[in-house]
Design goal:
The chain is an alpha/beta fold. The chain contains 7 helices and 7 strands, in the order E-H-E-E-E-H-H-E-H-E-H-H-E-H.
């Protein structure tokens, strides 16, 4: 008798994703939809997605008033903005800290025990830099919760443009990306630029199997992303 390569029912994971309209979140969504061990993907979004798939269920939500979320095995947090887009530090904090933490809390209540987070290089709650401080505060808040697995991706500059994401252009990125591509081999691990797909692949590969808190610096994201292409 031939052995079936189809995943067993026990492998059919149910997953929540917040931030699927973003650069990394969109790649996370694509990776999960392509994974044969994932049965359901529940995307939490403020607006409809342009993608449809038999596995995908889109939930239009207000993260300030989240409903009870569907039961799931793991969740991925990729919500983020910039101070320029948000309009103020308080508005930035409301997205990058409060919204992510609200989804994490609701996901935990829905049974999620494995969590993947898109954070940032140099995240530190004691940082004098506001952006890094907020990212660090979120990491610390999530570490204080009872997760079986918490995987934190800390990418440096993302080597991707945001065309087609319904986001305003980021002039700084357009100037920095070509330079970063040239300098990448010379930069220390934590500062190594990385493609969004590599960040996504690193999370979806690590979250299902890891135990405890795992922090993936940019160099690790580049490596795992490269292995995913092979």
């Amino acid at each position: 008798m031939m052995k079936s390569n189809m995943p067993s029912p026990a492998d059919q994971r149910k997953v929540l994703v917040a931030g699927a309209t973003g650069l990394v979140g969109g790649q996370i969504l694509q990776a999960l939809l392509a994974d044969p061990t994932v049965a359901e993907v529940h995307a939490l979004s403020r607006r409809p997605l342009t993608i449809s798939h038999p596995k995908l269920q889109v939930h239009i939500v207000d993260v300030g008033r989240l409903p009870a979320l569907p039961p799931a095995d793991e969740a991925y947090l990729a919500l983020g903005t910039t101070i320029k887009v948000a309009g103020s530090r308080a508005a930035f904090r409301a997205v990058d800290l409060d919204a992510n933490l609200a989804v994490a809390t609701a996901a935990h209540a829905a049974g999620v025990r494995r969590l993947g987070l898109v954070s940032a290089a140099m995240a530190n709650a004691a940082s004098s830099t506001f952006y890094n401080r907020v990212k660090g505060e979120l990491e610390d808040a999530l570490k204080a919760m009872a997760w079986k697995t918490l995987v934190i991706a800390q990418p440096s500059l993302l080597l991707d443009y945001r065309d087609g994401l319904q986001q305003p252009p980021r002039l700084g990125e357009r100037m920095a990306i070509p330079i970063a591509k040239v300098l990448a081999p010379l930069l220390p691990g934590a500062y190594r630029p990385v493609h969004a797909r590599a960040v996504a692949q690193s999370l979806v590969r690590t979250v299902p199997a890891a135990e405890g808190v795992v922090v993936l610096a940019s160099s690790a994201l580049v490596r795992i992303g490269s292995e995913a292409r092979d």
